Amino acid sequence: MPPESTTTSVVESSPPSFRIQKERTQLLGLTLDECIQGFFGGNALVAVIILGLITFFLFREGSGFFSQNRDNLSIYRLAGLEYVDLGRQPDKDHAALSRYLSDLRRRTYQYYMEEEGLSAKEAGGRLADFDVYADRFARASAPIRSQLMEWGEIANDIKARHLGNQNLAEKRRQLLAAGKTKEAAAVGILPVNFAVEVSAITATLPAYEEATATLARSLEELILAPPPLPTVELTARMARFQTLTRDFIASFPATLESMKKWDASVPVPLSQSFTAFIFGRQWLTASFWQDWYGATPLIAGSMLVSLIALALAIPLGVGAAIYVNQLASPLEQRLIKPAIEFISAIPSVVLGFFGIAVLGEFLRVASGWSFFAWIPGFPFAERLNALTAGCLLGLIAVPTIFTLAEDAINNVPRAFKEASYALGASRLQTIIRIIVPASLSGIVSAILLGLGRVIGETMVVLLCAGNRIAIPDFTAGLGVVTQPVHTMTGIIAQEMGEVEPGGIHYRALFVVGLLLFFIALLINYFAQKIVRKYKVSIG
Fold first, then answer.
1. Nearest in space to 188 (alpha carbons), one of 207, 172, 208
2. Is 485 in contact with 403 (CB distance < 8 Å)?
3. pLDDT tens, 255-266?
4. Distant-in-sequence, close-in-space partners of 420: CB < 8 Å, separation ≥ 6
5. What is the pTM of this model?
6. 225-251: pLDDT as tens digits
7. How far is CA 339 from CA 23, 333, 447, in A?
8. CATH 3.10.129.10 fits 297-332+339-345+383-474+481-538, yes or no
9. How far apart are CA 101 and CA 219, in angstroms?
10. What CA–CA distance (Å, rounded) separates 385 from 468?
11. 134, 105 in Cβ contact below 8 A?
């Protein structure tokens, strides 16, 4: 029979709905296969377009940040704020030493109360000499602090007048645009001569230099006659304090040299605006002194919380996948798989409330149990911290890692397992030496996708991470996990509703979103590469 007659007979014997669809597609000049291909191809095209629009929108809204940040840093330099902050560094270091001394007093007081059984009054009496010493140390920086206050008032006034001029210039521009020439001419702008104004600060550097010399002499006298302390450990801490104070005094010449070399006329390059954002250690907005947009605390907080989450989710998710696929009975599979996958259906805001009301408080109370005294950072007082947020994010990541890892294990050819059993290997040996290595690339891609799920989470970290914008103190070892942190997603959710559209703060949040977007794309890119490699190796 000819091919045409075969096709005709198939169409005639097909159901009426198929013949109607066939006739419609023929009228359009398309086959049914072409329509199906067009439908799915259109969906893919829509996805690409949406991704492109998101990228374009982020770039459009965040593109102006670096030029605005350069202007922000330029005003900071021209107004003399940068010069004042150079002079403030010794005062900040002195304040840190004073805090060290206060902590030493607290430890000594605690020793008198707990070890020697003294009353509060008796312990305070024993510390009378120490208190006099600490008070003299704190007062030693009074001359330099007085000089810095005077400088700060001058520099802040210069900046305020410059910003006021910018507002007046914008008002004049709007009036001219509205055709109100007379009103625009009435807007008076008195330009600021930065070089002349800032010279009122730099000209008094000799007085500041004399104040630092006075501070150095006072501190040298103090470290030569420290108060006696009751234990060897406390005495060693006092010796450490003396060493730190000597190092502090030795830093004065470098500070003075940097102030002498400071030049307000040096322009701020655009690259400094970029490095100040990526490597900046402060995120400070709406400050009367200077706004800072440094992403390092946010990146560090996001990475810390994500690592805690993965430390919990990887053994739980991968372990559950191996058990369900290789060891569990059919009944256990029917119970465990839906239960784990149901976790992903729980709204993240509900998990955040659970973290605030239950998990955070439980971890804080449990940290005080003697059983956990060996864990670094325990006990801790903050119930909302990186550990609380990390535990909840680990719970969120478990379904993703479990599902993808279980699929990877399930795709290992059955012949691998049968060959292992034929050679006399046990079930456990087969899992460890054959199944897991054969599916390792798939498991790694599951972990990376779980990381992408974690790092993009918002509500849990916003509610449970503590929202302290500071770089975690990694010198605390594992105790760093008990510190409050802020994250990239959390800062966007917290501050986006408070910013003025088009302002530097607004654009800074979009740059944070752009950074987060590229991190997520990078994670997914590596995950897809691993998946493709996995498929090729299996094939």
1. 172
2. no
3. 999 999 999 989
4. 429, 430, 433, 434
5. 0.83
6. 999 999 999 999 999 999 999 999 999
7. 48, 10, 20
8. no
9. 13
10. 9
11. yes
